[in-house]
Design a protein that fits this description.
The structure holds 2 protein chains of 2 kinds.
Chain A lengths: L4 H10 L6 H35 L15 H8 L1 H14 L1 H17 L5 H9 L6 H12 L6 H8 L16 H26 L3 H9 L4 H12 L1 H17 L2 H7 L11 H11 L3 H25 L5
Helix pairs in contact in A: 2-15, 5-6, 5-9, 5-12, 6-9, 7-9, 7-13, 9-12, 12-15, 14-15
Chain B lengths: L1 H36 L2 E7 L5 H16 L3 E7 L5 H10 L6 E5 L2 H4 L14 H5 L20 E2 L3 E8 H6 L9 H13 L3 E3 L15 H11 L6 H5 L7 H11 L17 H6 L3 E7 L3 H8 L3 E4 L10 E5 L2 E5 L6 H10 L3 H9 L14 H11 L3 E3 L2 H4 L2 H15 L5 H13 L12
Parallel strand pairs in B: 1-2, 1-3, 6-7, 9-11
Antiparallel strand pairs in B: 3-10, 4-10, 5-7, 5-8, 5-9
Helix pairs in contact in B: 2-14, 8-10, 17-18
Classes of the chains: A mainly alpha, B alpha/beta.
Chain lengths: 309, 435
């Protein structure tokens, strides 16, 4: 290799598309256009999340904070009420399969285009448009043990008037009432997600299955469900996040977290600690735990339902 | 093409610069005009909604402005649900109002660093005229400075239906547990629900508020000064005397002294006014409603949640106005607080259906005057217990005492939970100084 040959190689390298002046300008423009969104996401999401992690190690009261390290977490887990709250969240997880299975079944029925399916689709989706507070008031009325309570009235008309299930009045059943209401309120959203998923499945697959002699149940189990796996994953994560972080209005109106701590979930506990007691540090600690809770369950669920495609 | 783009950008920048300059000039002109007139504009935040307190506040401000033409007060009604969060955010952002409504007791000592201590502004003679000065002061000691100027005198109170008592053959109101249970038996025999419990009419939440009752249980057990023992922990929530009294209280539903659905019943005030129950434990804020609906058929009584005859009355200045340390017009703001002590202000407060907090003042509502008569007849005034014990303990107690009343857990378990919450508090929040 002669000495003169080396500089000749450099222009060749400079001519690569990625290093051209146009590409550089495009890259700069790309960065410029991304900056506002990056600033927004960073300023409104990443920094507050980072601050939450920081404050979770302090005793912040809204005005001043002192670093107490892992003592914050230790104190929280030593609190028996907090353990009850964690148990309540664990119980809430049990509502998720129901919140998936029921709308999935109904979506499957509606997808067969049975008579009046459009009407039922609208009716089932309707609760989605209702605010949580209204849903909570209706639910409270539904579970009211008085004569005007809807459940009591229905039972009476069915000849079961001797049975008075006063779910909201008992420490171990109030959460069940909240879970039933939660399943009802996410029913419409999940059903639409599954219907949308079913509409993406090629009709020819169903036709081929029918030709092979598959009945409705076999089609549902062997074709529809496997092809809906991604939609089930999505509905699971959305329902989980809703159950853990969007039921505040439902709980405050229906039970106020009681009786006792019977229906206090992590989300409600965070509100009480931070905004009722000004224990923002404790609220941040519980918030981080809630984040980890949702993250771990979502990861496990993704692992279990991992799709090969 | 690039020249045009540059021109557009320049035009936009020039336009923006012009707008900013105009805004700055307008702001400066406005400020100059304001200061040249020598006027002071204060901001007042309240969380009273539209009730009697809000009416009183509006009228007080109007009367004050009339007396002090150079001072204007902008009244801002903030949502009650997150009022203190908004206030706290405003303090952090240094945009707090000059005057704000505060609750008294530990609610105001919690914000002591943000509130102007009024020690230099109110003389000892003036303080002695304010009924609730003690509970509105730093460390509950007026000598250490008033933090909040109380607006009104409040009561936790029982109300009974006279005709239902008569129907059941009850000739005198019960004054202790045994008399109460005897009255309950008589009322039940006539098919009347003795005491109605359920969702607190004051709150959106669905639960009873147990501190009306607990305040009277405490009044039966200790002197007002001894209540500090609950704050410091010298009197544990699990002490046998407390457990015994709270257990008796929690047994009321089982003994037929209440409706069966104590945790879920709604509109209990409506039920009482319709004559569906003989008694209700509530507060003075419903006196106007009760008087209007029941006339002279309703009367107040001291909840008899004690083994001995009830000696106390829960009479307490629950709310008032405070001045922010951040205010740049502290003198004028304090002037408004002092105005609340004048006969004009007392007249306005009474006219709005409230009970003025100045010694010797009278109310306009007959029920309110009957309540004031309790203290004059020798009953000892007690603070609302939820204002003098730690907020964390109040929250735990609200949940657990309700659960005990509903029969979900024992009273001992509920009190144990309150003690655990108390014990978990930082030492400075259960020490000799109220924080």
């Amino acid at each position: 290799v002669s000495v003169q040959e080396v500089p000749a190689a450099i222009p060749t390298a400079r001519r690569r598309p990625g290093r051209s002046a146009l590409a550089a300008r495009r890259r700069r423009a790309g960065i410029l256009f991304t900056l506002p969104v990056a600033a927004l996401v960073g300023g409104l999401l990443l920094i507050p999340i980072g601050q939450t992690f920081y404050y979770s190690f302090t005793n912040w009261d809204g005005f001043t904070s002192q670093w107490i390290g892992f003592a914050a977490y230790r104190h929280l887990f030593q609190n028996p009420e907090f353990v009850t709250v964690l148990e309540n969240n664990a119980v809430m997880v049990l509502a998720i399969p129901v919140a998936i299975a029921l709308p999935l079944g109904v979506a499957f029925l509606l997808n067969t285009h049975l008579r009046g399916w459009r009407f039922f689709r609208s009716v089932f989706f309707l609760p989605t448009a209702v605010s949580w507070v209204v849903i909570a008031f209706v639910a409270r009325r539904f579970f009211d043990p008085d004569k005007q309570g809807i459940l009591t009235s229905v039972l009476r008309h069915m000849g079961l008037g001797f049975w008075h299930p006063n779910l909201l009045a008992h420490e171990h059943s109030a959460l069940i009432a909240v879970m039933i209401t939660f399943v009802w309120s996410v029913f419409g959203t999940n059903m639409i997600i599954f219907l949308a998923g079913m509409s993406t499945i090629d009709q020819e697959i169903y036709d081929a299955a029918k030709v092979d002699g598959a009945g409705s149940f076999v089609v549902m189990v062997k074709i529809t469900f496997p092809l809906l796996k991604r939609f089930v994953q999505f509905a699971f994560v959305v329902s989980l996040i809703t159950a853990f972080s969007a039921l505040f209005s439902l709980i405050i109106v229906m039970t106020n977290g009681g009786p006792g701590y019977g229906s206090t979930t992590l989300e409600f506990f965070i509100y009480e600690q931070a905004f009722t007691e000004n224990n923002f540090g404790v609220g941040a600690t519980a918030g981080v735990i809630l984040f980890l809770f949702v993250f771990v369950i979502s990861m496990v669920q993704l692992r279990v339902l991992r799709s090969d495609d | 093409m690039s020249t045009n783009k540059g021109g557009t950008v320049r035009r936009i920048i020039s336009g923006c610069a012009l707008l900013v300059a105009l805004a700055a000039i307008a702001g400066a002109a406005h400020a100059a005009a304001g200061s040249s007139r020598g006027n002071v504009t204060l901001t007042l935040w309240h969380n009273y909604g539209t009730g009697g307190n809000a009416v009183a506040t509006t009228k007080l401000v109007a009367a004050f402005e009339k007396q002090n033409p150079s001072i204007k007060i902008n009244v801002v009604s903030q949502p009650g649900g997150n009022y203190f969060q908004l206030l706290q955010a405003a303090w952090i952002a240094r945009t707090a109002p000059d005057i704000s409504v505060q609750w008294t007791g530990l609610f105001d000592t919690k914000y002591e660093k943000q509130l102007l201590n009024l020690k230099g502004y109110f003389s000892a003679a003036e303080l002695s005229k304010i009924n609730g000065a003690k509970w509105a002061s730093s460390n509950f000691n007026p000598a250490q400075g008033l933090l909040v100027m109380p607006l009104e005198n409040q009561f936790y109170m029982g109300f009974y239906n006279k005709s239902l008592f008569k129907k059941a053959g009850i000739t005198s109101v019960p004054t202790n547990w045994s008399e109460l249970f005897a009255a309950c038996s008589k009322l039940k025999a006539k098919g009347i629900t003795p005491i109605v419990y359920g969702a607190d009419p004051q709150a959106i939440g669905p639960n009873p508020y147990p501190y009306y009752d607990l305040s009277y249980i405490a009044a039966g057990l200790w002197s007002p000064a001894q209540l500090k023992g609950l704050y410091t922990g010298r009197i544990p929530w699990t002490s046998p005397a407390v457990v015994k009294q709270v257990s008796t209280w929690a047994s009321m539903p089982k003994k037929g002294c209440t409706n069966s659905d104590v945790l879920t019943k709604t509109n209990i005030l409506g039920a009482f006014m319709k004559g569906q129950a003989a008694m209700i434990i509530d507060g003075n804020w419903d006196t106007a409603t009760l008087s209007k609906a029941m006339g002279s058929n309703v009367a107040p009584f001291l909840p008899p949640f004690t083994s001995k005859p009830q000696k106390g009355v829960v009479q307490y200045s629950g709310d008032g106005f405070a001045v922010s340390k951040q205010s740049s017009h502290q003198k004028e703001a304090v002037q408004f607080l002092k105005f609340l002590m004048t006969p004009t202000a007392q007249h306005i407060i009474a006219g709005a259906g409230l009970i003025p907090d100045i010694v010797g003042a009278k109310a306009t509502n007959p029920l309110a005057n009957q309540m004031l008569a309790f203290a004059r007849s020798g009953k000892v005034p007690y603070p609302m217990i939820d204002n003098v014990i730690q907020g964390d303990v109040v929250t735990a107690g609200t949940k657990q005492l309700d659960a005990a009343l509903g029969g979900n857990i024992s009273a001992a378990s509920a009190l144990k939970s309150m003690k655990q919450t108390h014990d978990a508090l930082p030492a400075d929040q259960r020490g000799p100084v109220y924080h």
